[in-house]
Amino acid sequence: MSQMRNEFNGEKRMKILLATDGSKYSKTAINEIANRPFPPKTEVCILAAYEITSILNTLEPMGVSHEYNAKFDENAFKNAEKNAKSAAEILENKNPNLLVTTKIVAGSPKSVILNEAEKFKADLIIVGSHGYGAIERFVLGSVSHSVALHAKCSVEIVRK
Predict the structure, then answer these.
(1) If we measure between CA atoms, which residue out of 143, 81, 147 comes closest to residue 114?
(2) What does each C-alpha distance from 26 to 4, 18, 57, 135 come to in angstroms?
(3) Which of 57, 75, 103, 150 falls between 20 and 30 A from 65, CA-CA?
(4) How far is CA 101 from CA 11, 19, 59, in A?
(5) Strand 6-8 versus strand 11-13 pairing type
(6) What values do phi and psi take at 72, rounded to 5?
């Protein structure tokens, strides 16, 4: 684990970035954190990243309107917000020693997680693993694998 450089009243404070997408794999990671005896005042930032369509589709392909894309993006934001709030409630109820915040960011989860971990100065990133096979990883890409390869801090991948 990287040296904890964050202090609270002269005591070092650990900072954890927890990425969630609302899947059962993310819920496993949330419960894993909730049940651990972290030091008091450990900071956990719950991050929900969501992809947006309106920026990608500047033209109207195959009759899909900008209004449709905007509605899709709004729903994606609301879903990400719901996932982050749900994770925060679980952590706050099960582990009151944690200082929990939430953040919702638009963009590719792989890059959003890495960027936000640096901004937050995370000591640890925790992500759930979807357990993709080789073909699925090739086609879809693995967020957890990409984060583990490129993070500047420790990464824990929680499996179901």
Answers:
(1) 147
(2) 25, 9, 29, 22
(3) 103
(4) 20, 12, 37
(5) antiparallel
(6) -60, -45
Whether 107 is covered by a domain: the verdict is: yes
**CATH number for the domain that contains residue 123:** 3.40.50.620
**pLDDT tens across 52-95, in order?**
875 555 555 555 567 777 888 899 999 999 999 999 999 999 99
**Amino acid in position 83:** N
**pLDDT reported for residue 53:** 75
SS3 6: strand
Please report whether residue 1 resides in a domain: no
- Strands 11-13 and 15-19, by their bridges, are unpaired
Pair 126, 16: CB distance under 8 Å: yes
Q: Which domain holds residue 41?
A: 6-158
116-160 per-position pLDDT tens digit: 999 999 999 999 886 544 444 444 447 888 898 999 999 999 987
Joined together, the tokens standing for residue 42 give: 């450990």
Whether the full predicted model's pTM is greater than 0.70, yes or no, is: yes
- State how many domains the chain has: 1
Identify whether 145 is part of a domain: yes
